[in-house]
Amino acid sequence: MYINGRKITIEELQRMANKLIGAMLDNLYDDIQRDGLDKALPHSKIKKRAALSKMMEFYIDQEEYEKCSVVRDLLKTIK
């Protein structure tokens, strides 16, 4: 595959995708901190849980345990 005329490997593509997903999750985390869960994720409880679970997986992989604890507490509030 080529991006901007440069051949990239599948590993490079995976790193780029992970970086993009990470940036999106960080932005969502910041939005939740600033605006609250319901405003940042105005979706069903199922979709909120799915998004927060994805955030939890990401922050565990990144070893950002303070953010994990915030996300864990948010997950507890969704019933």
Instruction: Work out the helicity level.
Output: over 70%
| Total of domains | 1
What Rg do the Cα atoms give? 15 Å
Helix tally equals 4
Question: What's the rounded overall pLDDT mean?
Answer: 93
SS class: mainly alpha
Instruction: Write the element-wise H/E pattern from the N-terminal end onward.
Output: EEHHHH
> How does the overall form come out from the CA principal axes?
elongated
Termini Cα gap? 44 Å
Uncertain parts: none
The major sheet is characterized as: 2 strands, antiparallel
Percentage of β-strand residues: 5-15%
Walk across the major sheet and give the strand order: 1-2
By oligomeric state, this entry counts as: single chain
* Quantity of strands, as a count: 2
Question: Can you walk me through this structure?
Answer:
The protein has one domain. Helix content is about 75%, strand content about 5%. The chain is mainly α. The protein is built from 4 helices and 2 strands. The protein has a two-stranded antiparallel ribbon. A hairpin with a 2-residue loop joins strand 1 and strand 2 (about 5). It has helices at about 10-35, 35-40, 45-60, 65-75; strands spanning about 1-5, 5. It starts with a strand and ends with a helix. The model has no long low-confidence stretch (mean pLDDT about 95).
